[in-house]
Amino acid sequence: MGDTLGGRPRDDSLYRDGVADYEAMANEPEFQTGLDRLQEAVAHSRVCLMCAEREPLDCHRCLLVARRLAERGLTVGHILHDGTIEPHAATEQRLLALDSEAGDLFPAGQDERLAAAYRRRARAVAFRQKVPTRPAGAENG
Fold it and tell me: Residues 18, 128: contact at Cβ < 8 Å?
């Protein structure tokens, strides 16, 4: 389902400063349709979304897809490198702990802190567009 739930958008408007914007992607109708299809599949069978990332907090499936599935009330677990399954709520607690270094002077409520932590983590690990390089000797004009 990479066409609807993938972490590398084809639409340039879904990037902010060359980094995939997961919040903007989550609002796209195609993404919502992908979640609907996934939710329908979950109603009939057990579903596993796979990736190559060792750490769920480094993967768009956690920071983008699992977040939105959990918001819909689905039970989400992350298979860790040692084979244990970490509930998404526990992953979010680790995200908040990692983000505690953000050090806001005016702490927000739990929902706002979590949204900000997701935003910062996604910004750090999301897909980046390749910037075209200019040939040596090319002028700026």
Answer: yes
- Report the distance separating Cα 46 and Cα 23, nearest Å: 27
Structural domain for 11, as ranges: 2-125
CA distance 67 to 137: 46
Q: By the 8 A CB rule, do 96 and 114 touch?
A: yes
Q: How many domains does the chain have?
A: 1
Query: Which residue in 61, 94, 88 sits closest to 76, CA to CA?
Result: 88
Could you read off the pLDDT of 99-132 as tens digits, one per residue? 875 665 555 688 899 999 999 999 999 999 987 5
Residues 6+ apart with CB under 8 A from 120: 99, 102
